[in-house]
Amino acid sequence: MDLSILSFGASGWGDEMLVGAGMTFAVAISSYALALLIGVVFAACKLSPIAPLRWFGNFYTTVFRGVPELLIIYLVFFGGEMLLRSVAEGIFGYDGYISLPLFVTGMLCIGLGAGAFCTEVIRGAVLAVPKGQHEASEVLGLSSWEKAYFVIFPQALRIALPGLANVWQVTLKETALISVIGLVEVMRAAKIASGATHQPFTFYMYAAVLFLVITSVTNKGFVRAERWSNKGMER
Predict the structure, then answer these.
(1) 208 CB contacts (<8 Å, ≥6 apart)?
(2) pLDDT tens digit sequence for 54-80
(3) Which of 53, 118, 145, 164 has the largest CB neighbor count within 10 A?
(4) What are the φ and ψ backbone dihedral angles of 140, each rounded to 5 degrees?
(5) How crowded is the C-beta side of 79, counted as CA atoms within 13 Å?
(6) Full DSSP string of 133-171
(7) 154: left (phi over 0), alpha (psi -120 to 50) or beta
(8) Tens digits of residue pLDDT in 124-177
(9) Distance between terminal CA atoms of the chain?
């Protein structure tokens, strides 16, 4: 195994691989932020006393938990291109090629899929808050907003953190799928480098190491967040 090809500069591919790893992390963190926002919104829908909102929330989680992530990527990539072209032609008369930016496409696809799982994690965490906390909030005369913000949300967050950490790990790994649309993240960079040097094992092993480094570092952040949220709760 010739490790000199992983050096930096014109003679090696190390810098291209690190840039790809940076793109992987950027897509993962953007997708995860979107997934958290979606999770909060649709968890509220599924917990709502309004039946249409519950149906809407159930429809979303059923579809995006049941459809493979790769299929979502293809549907958004090609469907988004068709939609944008139709809008541009119908409104502006433009009939040329137009598509969503690859980064935005990847973020939307990964975020929509992860959002379905965040929805269930957050919904389960809210339901796991003891009933007495709800009753105590009502006795204290707190408004619905105050009850949610000061009582339910902090306790639900503590319960949800382990599940949300798992969703983050899955989100990070699923960024590898967006290489199929041409975005140069770490897997795409490894494919390009292995094609140029004919040493795929070296570059895919290096990609695995980069994924493990990102996973290990970010996992420590979740562990610290869990410890902080459990202050005063541990015996």
Answers:
(1) none
(2) 999 999 999 999 999 999 998 888 887
(3) 118
(4) -75, -10
(5) 9
(6) HHHHHHHTT--HHHIIIIIIHHHHHHHHHHHHHHHHHHH
(7) alpha
(8) 999 888 888 777 877 777 777 777 777 888 888 889 999 999 999 999 999 999
(9) 51
